[in-house]
Every structure is written in C-alpha cells, then in structure tokens.
C-alpha cells in the first residue's frame, strides 16, 4: 500500500526522513565573496608552483632529516618504524597525588595577591603596538604579556603585566625547561600564571589584534554558568554530521568566504566550498573553546597568502559576514584553531598547551586538533564565532618553512584523532595517553610527551582542578530525568517502567538470585576477600554521609553482589554517583560489587523504588536448548538473558514485544529488515508468506497509510481515548493479516496540506496536558495524516524574553498575560490579565513542553505552524486619563489611570513612566473595538479594550522581528509558516482599505524580517463573524497586502458558511477548506456529514480554485469521532463519498443537521441562543432575547434520538466491551423533561465513564502546579473557564457564561443542579404568591453561588463508578416507558 503526496509545493524544510533532526541552513547575509572558480583559473600557475615547491621542500627535508625524530614529513610509517619509535619513547610515570602546590617566588611577589577572572595572554617580541594598547584597555580583562629573547629589555605598557625571561624562570614551572627562548610558545608560561592568579577565562591573542568594539562579551559567550541546566540555554547551530566521512570543515564558508581557507585546513579539503545544506542543533553551554574570526587578515596559510597576493603585495582586507550565526562542531568533526583569537573556559584550560617539538606556525594548529579530541571526553565542543577582531595585513611575506609540519601530516592527524580511544580512568591520564600516542605516530616527538607530563603537573601545582571524566552521557543529557543502565543480552520492556518513580534509585535488590549477600568470614575464596578489602578501603574514604548510609545497610563482614546489571540513577543522584565512582580510582573492584556499594552509600534500600524492577525475569542459569519464547513476557520490566542469533529470531522477538508496544510493528521498517523469502508472517499460504508494505514520503504519510490499512482491511477504529480510544480487537494476529490484492493501493493527497487546530483549542482542550498526553495527540495527528499542526504552546516564555530585550520587566507583564486557561484569548488581544498572572514555573514548564512537542512533530515530518508574535498586547503605563494623541478612550476604568496598549502588533504606548528607551517618544495608537467589551458587565474594560500601534511606526516591525528571531533561537529554524489573526473578533479602527493594506504589509514585513521565507497563515473567521465590516474592498486590501503565495487563509467555517464561494476564491490567495463544527469544547451530538464529504471536493474542483488543503478547526476536541474520522479522511479523497457508505459499520444513523448561520441572525449585541423549532435542525440558531438567562437549543428530533437510544440498548449486551459504544450510550439520554431529577440522573450516568468527569479536568490543572498558590490559581482557572468569565456585580452577571459548558459528572451535580434548584424555588414561590418572578434576587443568589463555586477547592472523583449500560437501561425504562 503506497501513500504519497501528489501536488506538494517545494517544501520550505527538508523532509523529516532526516532522522537526525537536521534543519535547513539559516539564510546568511551576503558577504564580500572571492569567487573560487575564477580565483582558481586566475591563479592556476601559482598553485602549481607552490605545490611543486612543497613537494621539493618535503623531499629535501625528508632526505636531510632521515632518522631525525623531529622530521614530521614521513608520509606513512611502517610497522617496524612504529615499533622502533615506541621502543625509544618512555611513558611518563606520574604520581598525581604527590604533586605539590606552587607558592609565589620573590620575583613574582608583586602579583602574589593579584587576582582576575579574565585574562588576555599575548606573546610580545617588539615594543607595544597600537593594537596591543587597545587590548590593554578592554574593560574587565587583564592583559598579560610574555616576553622572549627578541623582546626589548625595557618593554612596558600601562595596564599590562609583563613577564620577562628572567621572571618566567623564577616562577617554578616545570614547563619552562622545555620552552625555546625565541618562540611565542612561551605563552604556556602565561597560561599557567593566569590560572594561578584566578583565571576563569583566557583569551589567547596576539599583538596585532584589535577587538571589534573593544568588547569581547559582545562577540563570545563568556558566561556558561549553569551549563548543568542545559535546557535553559538557547539552541546553537551545529554542523551536520550526516556524512561520517566528513571529518574537518572550513568555517570561512559558513561566514561568507568560500575561496578563503584557514591555516591548518588539509589542502585536500580546500576545494570543499559548497554552502551547508543542513545544520543540526544543540543546547549551548558547553562550548568551552570558542574560536573567533578575524577581518582584515584572517588566519590563512602560506599557500593562500602566496597565491592570492598580487604582484604589488597589496594588503588583504577580507571581510566575513557579521550576521552569520555562530556554529558548533559535533563530535567526529574538527576545525582549525589558532592562538590569536580564541577563548578558553576553565573546563578547557588543559588544552592551552602549545607543543614545543613542532614548527612555530604548526604549534597552535596541532594543539587545536589535539584539544578538540580531548574536549569530547568531557562532553564539550568547539564553536566558531563571527568576526571578533580585526588584524592589519603588514604585507610581509609569509614564512612557508614554518608550516612544514602542517601540509603533509595534518590530514592524517585528524583521521588518527577521530579513531583514537583510551581506557584511562581520569582526564589527565587520557591527555597524557593521547600525547604519547601522537609521538608514537610521529606527529610530534618524545619531547612533547615529557612536556605534556610537565604541563599537567604544573596545572595541578597552580591549583587547577581537572574536569571529572565519566561517561559523556551525563553531560550530554542534562535535561534527562535519570539514566537507566542495562547489560548486553537484556531486553528492556520500557512500557512497564513508565509509572515507576523516576526520582528514586532502582536496582534489583528484590530479585531472587540477583542481589546476593556473601559472608566474608565463612567464604574461603580469596577473590571475595580481596574484593571485600578493597570495598572496606573505598568506604573508609567516603564522605561521612555516604559512610553512614552504607554502614546502616551493610556490615563489614559481608559483601553484596548484584548480578542482573540493570539499575537506574535519577538526575538528583548523578552528582553523588559520579563522586563515588571517582573515589574508587584505580582499585580493581568488580562492577557487580561496586554498583550495589554505590547504591547503599547514596540512599537506604527502603527508599529505593524496588518495585520498579522486582518483577524482571532473571534466569542466569538458562539451559542451552531453552528458547526465549518460552520465558519472555511483555508484562515484566526486563528479561535476562535473551539472545537472538539471526534476523528471523529478531523479527519473532519484535512481534512478541509488540504486545507491550504495538508501534514496534512498524510495517515499513520491518519490511526493510526482512528478506522476502521469509518475510513477516502476515497472510500465509502453505508455501509462502506475504509482506504488508506501506510506503510514503514522510513518517506522517506512512502513519496515515497504516491507519488506512487498519481501518479498511482490518476494521479497526482509532480515536481519542474519550471517544473510544484504539479499537483494534478486530485486527487479526500476525500471520493472519488481510492481504492487499494485486499491486496494492495508491492513495495520494489531492492537496498538499492537512491542517489541525483552532487557535482556541489550546485553551479549551490542551491547557492542562503533560507530555504523556501530548505524544498521544501528535501520534493521532500522524495517523490522521495531519502535516500542518498549530504549535502555540509556550509562546508566553518567548514574549517574556522579547520584552526583556526592550527593558520590560517580568512584573510589568503581570497584567499582560492571561491565566493558563485563558491564554488563547490573551494571545489574540480579546482580553488581558484575566486569570493571571503567569508564574515563572508555568512559563518555563510550557517552554520545555513545547520543545518536546516540536521535536516530535518534526520527527514525524510535520510542518508546525508557529505564532508570528505580532498579535499580543500589554497594558503598562500611567497616563493622563482618557486621552492620547487625539484619541479619547471610552473604555477607561473609573478607578485606574492606565494606558491600554493592546493586540496585534500594537505592543507599546509611550508615557512618562515607561522605561523602554526610544519607545518613550513613540506611539501613535488607534483603538480597536473588541467583542470582549460586549461580554463584560456594563462594558467594564478592566480585562479588555485594545489599541493598535500605527503600522508606519518602525517599532511595529522591530518587535515582530524580535519575536520570530527569539523563537528561532529557542527552537531552531523549524518552520516558515506563522499564524497571525489580526482582527479575530476585533474591529479595526477604520475601514479605509489603504490603512488595512498598510497594516497587513507591516505585519508581513515583521515576519519576513525574522524569516525571509515567512508565510502568513490567517484564520478567516473574521470574514464570517464580522461580514458587515469585511466587505470586498476591505477583504481584498488585507489579502493583497502580502505577496501572493506568502499568505494562506483558513476558510474556518467552510462546512457551514464557505467564504471561498463569495470572495472569488479569496481573491487569488491560497486557502484551506476547514470544518469548524465545535464551539467551546461542548459535548454534543451533531455533524453535517454530507457537507464534509462533498464540500472540499466542490471547492477543489471549482473554476480557478486556490484551495491548498483541508483542515480541522474545532474549538474543542474529544467528541463526535464519526465527524472527525470523515473530515480527516477528506485529506486523501479526490472524489465525493456518501456518508452512509463511510459509516456503514455504525449501527445507528444519527440525523445530519446543518448548523446554518445567516448574517441576519447575528444580533448587534452578540449571539444569543434561542429555542429553535424542531423543523430547523440547526446546530446554532440565534436571535435577540430580553432575558439574560441561558437558552436551550436542540438540533435533532427527540423522536429520532429516542429511537436511536433503544437500538443502542438492544445491542448493548453484544457491544458492552466497546469503548466507542459505551461513550455514545452515556450521552443519548441527556435530553429529557424532568429537569432537576434528570440532572442528577445524568450526573450518575456520566459518573460511570472515566471520560466524563469534572475531577479529571481539575486534577489535570492542579498537577501542573508546584506550590499552594499555583494550585489554587490553576484550579480557579479550570473552574472558571467552564462556567462564567469576567467580573460581575451582585445582580448583573457576565454575558460570557456557560459558553464552554461541559456534560461532566460533578459539574452537573455541584454547579448546574443548585443553580436550577434555586431558580425553580423562586419560580414556585412567585407562582404560589401570585407575584412577579424575583429576577434580581435569583440573579444575586446564583451569581454569588457561581463565584463561591469557582473559588472552591473540593475534590471530585477521577474514577468512574457504576455500569454505564445498566444505568442507561434503567434510565430508559424510567423516562421512556
């Protein structure tokens, strides 16, 4: 079965089949480029001459230096030569614990007490230059100048510390003995001096460099504090490592200069001048070595210098792209580094050592490659930065002879380093081991092995603490909840560990034969006694709290052996675990003894989550002929041992494991693995089995293809948990799957996009979701074929960071963001502050969640729709009441003097107390009319009223651009499609098409400044909800304010009121045919299947159609699965289908009713529901009413509903196991006449289904809180959203009440029932007393009750009670007999 896209436009992103999560290359500003092809042809004779020169010099040097171990031009060493070299090199023996600290000698006494965190280290051979004087003035940095034999004896510079040869000799450093007198490599002394005097950062520089702007902090990342919390750091662009053979890169290409290459780049890589197609991303915070670029004269080699110089030796002035982003190097890929523009953080100070046995122009390059390899051992990496310095080319000849150690050996060195591995225990031991290995390979000599030993000892002597080495996984995954370790031949059934306590230690202390106590006194085996002695020694060196914990659980005469080798260390114990491992040192304690020792030291066994692993299958003495199928089970956390010896066995294992995780049976993946002759045992004959193959261009296509097969070949139904869940009982077991006959079925998308979500779904349905619920939803999207989902979570955290960039504090934003349950409307400017303020915990939590959401969407091949950042508002500043720039504000609160700065890029209003820099003088604003004012009591503007900054103001664009760039910084360049709903139920200040056009153009300009490929996606609801304003001139002005192809409109209500028919297909603008269907997340039964099954086809096939997709735009989800199943399928349908055919497996045909809505039915005061006649059968009908009370609405015949109920109940005994059936059975009795009693009965019925409980909604809210205040706030938000919004008076309620009502057990009984009871009480009394109904008294009572209920904290059940079918039958008999 093949599922493909047909007419998909050229994607703005690469396919997510790139499983390593790569992203499109960021667009870089054009830089002055030196065209490589033209340069090559112009300089061909020079290149040939230089290469001949290199070859000649190499040959002469090789002949002259044969036998000289310093000659690094040996092209390949023979095995005998390697053995000979090895026999000549002694491996240094160092007693690391015996290295004594160095004091301060008399010669250095002037600086004995001097300390500085930041040092610039240079080598000086001449009198101070202007550049050096500028370096001495760099604020916050201490300049350290290191002299050599060429340095004038009277060298002096104000602000600099100078160390002459004599002073260097008196410092007591071991390394001094190895340093040549006339070389810049003497800087190694300076590095040690700086470390000794408090260095946390060292800028390795030279005396020709001028820091651009005299501010290193402007260019480099100087503050990496808190790298342990990597998720708080912005993402950093990283070179893709998709090609494992690519081991070195030319960073100059990334920064706009394709024909320039750095010194140290292998000449064979000079021709690699193509721009990057893709980059990956990582969290910043561990770029411990940072290489900057140099404008003017960059770091180039002699080959470049000689061939690129004109005959007049005109000075170079090469410029790199200042706007190109910094870029990191992944492990396995290297870049040339130098010693004149590089920042080293304290974690990488060991990497400052400049080798002494190689030529001066090779020393820093070899150091850079050597340091990069060691950096990987501690989870660090190198990053390259845009131009940070400017160097003037002195137009002097470059010393080719000084590069003799580069051009032949550097390529081989890189390959060697990438392949090098070490088993040494500490970082310094690994550094020494690598230096020794490099000498063995002839990259440098034994002299540098000895120098490395001296360097490392000097580091310890000056107080440097070597970074701790441990498996890099701890450093790479700082955001992980914990780390699970398992041995080979163990199968992990991860699905059984989801509910385990991830804050506790897990180990197999409750597994028989795994956790064994060995008495040492009675055990005669010497091995156990030796192990016991080493354990005793290690424990005695533990910190006291570890010793106490261990000895409370274990006596000295016993030893614990843990044999299963599966254990879990939560993040909070990682530091302790690392420390304990370090204390073992070189002792040869077996890991089966060391691990339980660590666990007993970290915590008491009674605090372990022993139940997490207690049920594992542990069979260490498995018989040789015992098959794994006889003892493997998917119901336990792990199985040991389990070996598979061939691919058929592996497939068999996966099939068995799929009982725990059905997604393991990814059919396409299995087909790639299994040879055709033995294949997946699906449909089989006696001689042959068949393969069910699903192919597609992305994971979404494959997932939707799987869904199509399960639905049409296996009779399965996959829905939300609340509407039936995954009904897959009809799917045959593997080996019996139905065949797809012939050549299979090819299903193509007739239009490229399948859109999902309304902008308010995030509040009505998603607001309290955690990642566990989100991942289910995203997978459901993939099965439905959704490839264009809205991704709005966490945007408030982005806004906070953007506003901080404009000097707006977090406190200032308290009245800007709405509460968690009202964020959708705050984002659109319909309200502000209601339900807030947002806590920092909420902002951080949602940002982390969004990163998970986006990662999953990208992984599946979806294109997320992000927010554009041009539709938010904030109310901030004190002004004179009621006036601003000639506009009078009729919404001004009586008790406050505020300027309202609201909605859709209006952002800022100037005023005397606003600390926004240049914004103080800006702010021509216009008032926007909002529907929210109509829903408040007496038009109270406390939570609404909107103003718009004039689109001609440059700030309009600046803020929008800043928002998009901040998003890219957080999430990466993952999308080009941005949602912006400028006037969602807000009216512009004028209907002038010119103004509307300028506003649209400004919004798009802000988007495109942040992303040059931006596409504006806009909900077309405004054209339905405010058709009186958006007439053809206004519509055309807005739609044509953006280049055609750069806007997509969602025809949001196309299932009822299609705008495409009346707007000449949106005047040529691409649009998506959408079904709105649901309002407020109400739980009701309706759906116009005939419109859904034909509408998209009619639109697509119409003349001059501009339709590019279909979409689900319901306000709330988890209801009416039949409707959404059909609508999702229309993304793959090219022909109309008959609803009755599509739903032939459903027992009862519910009437398809049209929620038709006409403009004439819209009242000027708002949409008030009325009693419709049964003949209308409309989902929504509106008319004005004088009563401010809720009005009922019916959209189906009671007679038909009762008939359907009876059919359901008759079939109930057969379908009682179907979640879909019980779901509908618990709804259909909701509409009856005995009101108060009926409410209680309905509540009882709803209580019998887990999916209709108020408690689930409230507990979801509370579970996201971290303290009592958040808990109260979130619960209030949850209660208020489903009842009554906004403030009220004692006798006048908000008009926005019951819009998001829900049929939930608990809500009916505790909220609606008392309200109705109060009403009927007043009604009865008025009838008895023959008096008018006391409307105000009744309002006073129910408004007071509503307020108290919203502020309540009583708990409601989260577990169903009762039998839904039995209760339904009882109620049917009660009401319908």
Automatic annotation (TrEMBL):
Keywords: Hydrolase, Membrane, Transmembrane, Transmembrane helix. One of its GO terms (molecular function) is hydrolase activity. Residues 1-22 are annotated as: Disordered. InterPro entries: Hex-like_dom2, NAGLU, NAGLU_C, NAGLU_N, NAGLU_tim-barrel, STL-like. The chain crosses the membrane at residues 44-63. Pfam families: NAGLU, NAGLU_C, NAGLU_N, STELLO. Residues 691-738 form the Alpha-N-acetylglucosaminidase N-terminal domain. Residues 1223-1374 form the Alpha-N-acetylglucosaminidase C-terminal domain. It comes from the Eukaryota. Residues 755-866, 937-1133 form the Alpha-N-acetylglucosaminidase tim-barrel domain. PANTHER family: ALPHA-N-ACETYLGLUCOSAMINIDASE. This is Putative Alpha-N-acetylglucosaminidase.
């Amino acid at each position: 079965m093949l599922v493909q896209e047909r007419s998909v436009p050229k994607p703005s992103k690469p396919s997510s089949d790139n499983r390593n999560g790569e992203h499109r290359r960021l667009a870089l500003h054009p830089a002055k480029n030196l065209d490589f092809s033209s340069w090559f042809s112009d300089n061909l004779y020079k290149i040939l001459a230089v290469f001949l020169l290199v070859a000649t010099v190499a040959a002469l040097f090789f002949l002259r230096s044969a036998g000289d171990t310093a000659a690094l031009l040996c092209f390949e060493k023979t095995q005998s030569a390697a053995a000979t070299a090895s026999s000549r090199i002694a491996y240094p023996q160092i007693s690391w614990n015996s290295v004594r600290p160095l004091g301060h000698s008399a010669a250095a006494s002037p600086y004995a007490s001097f300390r500085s965190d930041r040092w610039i280290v240079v080598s000086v051979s001449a009198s101070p230059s202007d550049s050096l004087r500028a370096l001495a003035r760099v604020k916050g940095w201490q300049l350290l100048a290191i002299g050599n034999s060429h340095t004038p004896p009277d060298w002096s510079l104000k602000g600099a510390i100078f160390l002459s040869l004599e002073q260097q000799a008196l410092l007591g450093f071991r390394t001094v003995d190895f340093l040549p007198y006339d070389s810049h490599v003497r800087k190694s002394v300076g590095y040690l001096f700086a470390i000794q005097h408090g260095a946390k950062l060292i800028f390795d520089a030279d005396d020709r460099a001028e820091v651009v702007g005299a501010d290193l902090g402007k260019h480099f990342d100087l503050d990496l504090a808190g790298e342990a919390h990597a998720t708080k750091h912005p993402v950093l662009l990283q070179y893709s490592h998709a090609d494992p053979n690519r081991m070195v890169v030319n960073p100059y290409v990334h920064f706009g200069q394709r024909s320039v290459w750095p010194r140290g780049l292998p000449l064979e890589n000079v021709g690699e001048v193509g721009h990057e197609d893709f980059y990956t991303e990582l969290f910043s915070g561990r770029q411990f070595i940072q290489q900057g670029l140099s404008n003017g004269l960059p770091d180039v080699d002699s080959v470049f210098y000689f061939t690129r110089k004109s005959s007049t030796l005109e000075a170079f002035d090469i410029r790199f792209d200042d706007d190109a982003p910094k870029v990191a190097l992944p492990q396995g890929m290297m870049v040339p580094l130098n010693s004149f523009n590089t920042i080293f953080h304290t974690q990488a100070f060991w990497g400052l050592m400049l080798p002494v046995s190689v030529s001066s122009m090779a020393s820093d390059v070899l150091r850079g490659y050597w340091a990069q390899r060691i950096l990987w051992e501690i989870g660090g990496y190198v990053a390259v930065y845009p131009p940070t310095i400017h160097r003037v080319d002195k137009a002097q000849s470059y010393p080719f002879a000084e590069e003799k150690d580069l051009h032949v050996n550097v390529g081989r060195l890189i390959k060697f380093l990438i392949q090098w591995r070490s088993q040494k225990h500490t970082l310094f031991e690994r550094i020494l081991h690598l230096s020794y290995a490099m000498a063995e390979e002839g990259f440098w000599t034994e002299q540098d092995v000895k120098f490395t030993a001296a360097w490392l000892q000097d580091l310890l002597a000056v107080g440097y603490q070597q970074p701790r080495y441990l498996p890099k996984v701890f450093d790479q995954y700082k955001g992980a909840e914990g780390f699970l370790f398992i041995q080979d031949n163990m199968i992990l059934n991860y699905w059984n560990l989801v509910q385990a306590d991830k804050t506790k230690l897990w180990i197999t202390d409750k597994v028989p034969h795994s956790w064994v106590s060995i008495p040492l006194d009675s055990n005669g085996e010497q091995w156990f006694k030796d192990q016991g002695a080493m354990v005793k020694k290690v424990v005695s060196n533990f910190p006291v709290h570890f010793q106490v914990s261990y000895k409370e659980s274990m006596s000295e005469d016993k030893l614990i052996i843990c044999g299963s080798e599966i254990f879990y260390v939560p993040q909070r114990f990682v530091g302790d675990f690392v420390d304990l491992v370090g204390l073992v040192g070189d002792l040869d304690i077996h890991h089966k003894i060391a691990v339980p020792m660590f666990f007993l030291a970290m915590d008491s066994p009674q605090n372990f989550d022993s139940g997490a692993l207690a049920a594992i299958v542990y069979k260490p003495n498995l018989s040789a002929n015992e098959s794994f199928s006889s003892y493997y089970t998917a119901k336990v956390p792990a199985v040991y041992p389990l070996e598979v010896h061939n691919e058929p066995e592996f497939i068999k294992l996966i099939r068995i494991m799929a009982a725990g995780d059905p997604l393991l049976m990814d059919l396409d993946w299995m087909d790639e693995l299994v040879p055709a002759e033995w294949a997946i045992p699906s449909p089989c004959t006696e001689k042959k089995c068949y393969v069910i193959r699903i192919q597609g261009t992305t994971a979404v296509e494959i997932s939707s293809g799987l869904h199509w097969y399960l639905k049409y070949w296996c009779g399965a139904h996959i829905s939300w948990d609340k509407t039936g869940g995954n009904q897959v009982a009809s799917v045959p077991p593997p080996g019996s799957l139905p065949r797809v006959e012939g050549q299979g079925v090819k299903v193509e998308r007739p239009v490229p996009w399948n859109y999902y979500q309304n902008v308010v779904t995030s509040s009505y349905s998603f607001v309290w979701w955690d990642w566990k619920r989100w991942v289910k939803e995203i997978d459901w999207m993939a099965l439905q074929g959704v490839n264009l989902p809205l991704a709005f979570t966490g945007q408030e955290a982005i806004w906070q960071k953007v506003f901080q960039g404009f000097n707006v504090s977090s406190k200032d934003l308290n009245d800007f963001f709405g509460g968690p349950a009202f964020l959708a409307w705050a984002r659109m400017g319909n309200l502000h502050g209601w339900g807030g303020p947002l806590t920092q915990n909420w902002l951080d939590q949602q940002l982390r969640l969004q990163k998970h959401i986006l990662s999953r969407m990208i992984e599946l091949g979806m294109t997320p729709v992000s927010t554009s950042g041009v539709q938010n508002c904030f109310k901030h500043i004190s002004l004179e009441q009621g006036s601003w720039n000639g506009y009078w504000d009729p919404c001004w609160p009586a008790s406050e003097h505020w300027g309202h700065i609201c909605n859709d890029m209006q952002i800022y209003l100037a005023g005397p107390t606003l600390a926004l820099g240049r914004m103080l003088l800006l702010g021509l604003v216009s008032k926007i009319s909002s529907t929210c004012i109509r829903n408040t009591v007496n038009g109270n503007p406390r939570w609404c009223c909107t103003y718009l900054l004039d689109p001609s103001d440059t700030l309009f664009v600046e803020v929008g651009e800043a928002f998009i760039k901040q998003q890219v910084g957080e999430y990466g360049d993952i999308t080009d499609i941005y949602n912006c709903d400028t006037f969602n139920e807000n009216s512009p200040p004028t209907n002038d098409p010119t103004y509307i056009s300028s506003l649209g153009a400004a919004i798009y300009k802000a988007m495109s400044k942040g992303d040059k490929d931006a596409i504006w996606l806009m909900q077309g609801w405004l054209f339905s909800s405010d058709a009186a304003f958006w007439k053809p001139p206004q519509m055309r002005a807005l739609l044509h304010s953006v280049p055609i192809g750069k806007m997509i409109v969602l025809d949001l209500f196309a299932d009822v009121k299609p705008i495409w028919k009346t707007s000449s297909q949106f005047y040529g603008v691409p649009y998506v045919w959408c079904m709105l269907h649901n309002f407020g997340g109400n739980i009701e039964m309706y759906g116009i299947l005939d419109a859904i099954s034909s509408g998209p086809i009619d639109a697509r096939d119409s003349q001059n159609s501009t339709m590019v997709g279909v979409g689900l735009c319901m306000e709330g989800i988890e209801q009416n699965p039949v409707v959404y199943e059909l609508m999702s399928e229309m993304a793959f349908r090219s022909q109309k289908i008959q609803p009755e055919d599509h739903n032939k497996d459903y027992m009862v045909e519910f009437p398809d009713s049209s929620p038709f809505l006409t403009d004439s039915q819209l009242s000027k005061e708002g949409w008030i529901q009325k009693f419709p006649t049964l003949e209308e059968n409309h989902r929504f009908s509106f008319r004005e009413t004088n009563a401010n009370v809720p009005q009922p609405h019916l959209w189906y015949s009671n007679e038909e509903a009762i008939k359907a109920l009876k059919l359901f109940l008759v079939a109930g005994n057969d379908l009682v196991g179907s979640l879909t059936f019980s779901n509908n059975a618990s709804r259909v009795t909701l509409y009856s006449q005995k009101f108060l009693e009926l409410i209680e009965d309905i509540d009882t019925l709803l209580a019998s289904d887990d999916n209709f409980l108020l408690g689930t909604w409230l507990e979801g809210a509370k579970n996201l809180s971290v303290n009592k205040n958040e808990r109260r706030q979130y619960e209030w938000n949850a209660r208020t959203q489903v009842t009554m919004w906004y403030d009220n008076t004692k006798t006048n309620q908000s008009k926005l009440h019951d819009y998001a009502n829900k049929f939930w057990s608990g809500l009916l009984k505790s909220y609606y029932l008392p309200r109705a009871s109060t009403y009927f009480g007043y009604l009865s009394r008025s009838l008895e007393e023959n008096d008018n109904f006391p409307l105000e008294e009744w309002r006073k009572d129910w408004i007071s009750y509503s307020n108290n209920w919203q502020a309540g904290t009583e708990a409601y059940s989260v577990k169903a009670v009762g039998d839904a079918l039995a209760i339904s039958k009882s109620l049917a008999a009660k009401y319908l007999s």
